[in-house]
Specification:
heterodimer, A: mainly beta, five-stranded antiparallel beta sheet, about 0% helix, B: seven-stranded mixed beta sheet, 11 strands
């Protein structure tokens, strides 16, 4: 079983502040790293898929970076808004494997 | 634009009963997945199908069977439900293994 870890488990951030959290994954046999956003009572929605070491992706105020050699990815949210409150999941694709292994997520709460 | 449709949304079963969870996607995706989500455990893969006519076990396949009926549909069957199978079940689909996955709204299943 592959080990995909996310930290912190939960986070409370004041509206307007910026924040970031981490996903750690195996550094060998890397193929892709996914980030998903999961709002309460909804289903997960894909944010980014990254495949190359050094990759950076951006969507509005949310961005992500990838370091495949050391096995980590950061997700950044700039100027947090209440609608950013959600659980953020990362998921790892091993080379040659159709399956995704998910982390347990970081639960982000934005305090107005 | 339906995306991934799961039925039913809620179900209560008695121990030993059987049932089939249905999933259909209208995005012409090749790969389909069944996950279960339990508190503190994140999303765990039960079974997946890389293409029509193929299925493979995920992390937690015991007690479940699947059928990839055609390219659109992927069903999950509980032959003899057990309380340990109380969970929220998500179906997902993607173009292929490392592409972003699109999730259904989930089925909340309680087994008494």
């Amino acid at each position: 079983i592959l080990n995909v870890e996310q930290s912190p488990q939960s986070l409370h951030v004041q509206e307007g502040d910026s924040t970031n959290f981490t996903c750690s994954f195996p550094s060998s046999n890397f193929y892709a790293l996914h980030w998903y956003r999961w709002e309460t009572a909804k289903s997960p929605e894909a944010l980014f898929v990254m495949t190359l070491n050094g990759d950076e992706k951006k969507k509005g105020r949310i961005s992500a970076t990838l370091n495949t050699k050391e096995g980590y990815s950061y997700l950044y949210i700039k100027g947090s808004q209440p609608e950013d409150s959600a659980t953020y999941l990362c998921a790892f694709n091993e080379f040659g494997n159709e399956k995704l292994t998910f982390g347990t997520g970081t639960r982000l709460t934005i305090i107005p | 634009n339906a995306g991934v449709t799961q039925t039913p949304k809620f179900q209560v079963l008695k121990t030993g009963q059987s049932m089939t969870l249905q999933c259909a996607q209208d995005m012409n995706h090749n790969s389909m997945y069944w996950y279960r989500q339990d508190p503190g455990m994140g999303l765990r893969l039960i079974y997946y199908s890389a293409s029509e006519g193929t299925t493979d076990k995920g992390e937690v396949p015991n007690g479940y069977n699947v059928s990839r009926l055609n390219k659109r549909e992927f069903s999950l069957r509980l032959e003899s439900a057990a309380p340990s199978q109380t969970s929220v079940y998500f179906c997902a689909s993607s173009e292929a293994g490392w592409w972003p996955q699109h999730f259904g709204d989930g089925t909340r299943l309680s087994i008494l």
